[in-house]
């Protein structure tokens, strides 16, 4: 879609929203005004409990923000047309003394690969435009039971960024809805190599946190296979919980691989993220997802939040590769490490830990990162992204194999509603509709996955999966944490996401700093890029979310550095 068409579409959205909202209820203007901008879930709940605002008025403010600012950042794929009716129903329940739960009347957004039956679920793929699944995701059922209003479906990278091969598609781009933009600098990239409409300041991917950062809704639910909750949270100064795989049911979510897929909360505070995590999890395991028996359930994570949690905590610094460059065995060029601005920010973060009583073990290197045996070194074990790369034997086919297995199972679960019946049919549909924009960045990863005959590649997949777990868990996170008796590892930004994602281990991201953008190639003279956000990540072993949230909350309260996007009052 051209820019003029895109803007006119946004104009229609804005006009429709404004017409839906007018005339405003008189009560919205009575008493002390309440602003949703940067408001927390407890603050919204208190305002509704005291009669300062109704759920309808709360929703109205969020819809107006979407109407006024959506054209700048393209944060939504769909807005719930029944949201105001749902808010009215929740207001009636509150007046009758019935409160469903901690999210009663709170607007929440979902990544558009999470099933809803009152809005389409597209994964950002043109082939799935208008698809309304025959069942809703378990996490959506949990949200509704707690009183949440599912306000919108968020922009995302198409099919969670397992479509286009190297160099891939920009994060938060999809063939259905174009590019998403970062509210901290919603400009297009003017550099010649990137001058295709993409944003100058990355949004992170494949989930979107832009609408939460801009107060379009109270919080949102993303999904991650390897970094797609943590990355957009990092880019948009948000808190995020990438939970243990199985903590939240995956039933009703478009998959890449069940080995690593999970949903998780993204919010403006640790408290909000903790509230949302408990609701998404639910009190009981889900019979549709056997992994939901992995961790004890029914936790109120807000009970773990402790300002003093850093005191006495043992936190490890995985310095090799994640902070300082490291050489893999048999190579000459060092890999990884931080640029000077990021290194300075993380040094300051470590001092915060020490100041508030944490014991910092530095270094606490990941054993598989510093292992001299090439066959046991994590730096030499990547995710395969092509058949040629897979033939080298030096990478894991888990993603490619899992997509062939799990995506086809998901399509089958749709029954007659499925627009295509297999990954093979989707690839052909994309080729047949190139004029509509399906293959702007190609579909090399889909091609690769569809080449994964499940029987032919089963032994290779099982061996690769075993090595994934050995290098990241047994000889990775598990070993370093046991050796040093750690409560958590502290990673810069999203750098530890791939390591923790492979065994399905949890991470909590907290906003912390902004650093100068080190652009390559440089931006043209006169185009001053906004600084880049850098959060800190607390990572632990399976089912350690309560402890990680406690540490994250203590760090957040000690620093409080998150800033809202400029120019969006």
Please, could you describe this protein's structure?
The protein has an eleven-stranded mixed beta sheet, sandwiched between helices. The protein contains 18 helices and 15 strands. Mean pLDDT is 94; it is low at 1-12 and 22-30. The chain is 35% helix and 12% strand.
- Please state roughly what percent of the residues sit in beta strands, choosing from under 5%, 5-15%, 15-25%, 25-35%, 35-45% or over 45%: 5-15%
**Which regions are unreliable across 5 or more consecutive residues at pLDDT < 50?**
1-12, 22-30
N/C terminus separation: 29 Å
Strand count, sense and closure of the main sheet?
11 strands, mixed
- Separate helix tally: 18
Question: Helical residue percent?
Answer: 25-40%
Number of strands: 15
Report the mean per-residue pLDDT as an integer: 94
Radius of gyration based on Cα positions: 23 Å
Q: Which structural category fits the helices and strands?
A: alpha/beta
Biggest sheet, strands in spatial order?
1-3-2-6-8-7-14-15-13-9-10
Shape: globular
Keyword list:
15 strands, globular, disordered N terminus, about 575 residues
Quick structural summary:
Helix content is 35%, strand content 12%. It has helices at 3-21, 41-49, 55-73, 83-95, 138-145, 210-213, 230-235, 270-281, 319-322, 340-355, 367-370, 387-391, 398-413, 423-432, 444-450, 458-484, 497-501, 545-559; strands spanning 76-79, 107-111, 149-154, 173-174, 178-179, 219-224, 239-242, 262-267, 314-316, 359-361, 382-383, 395-396, 488-492, 507-515, 532-539.
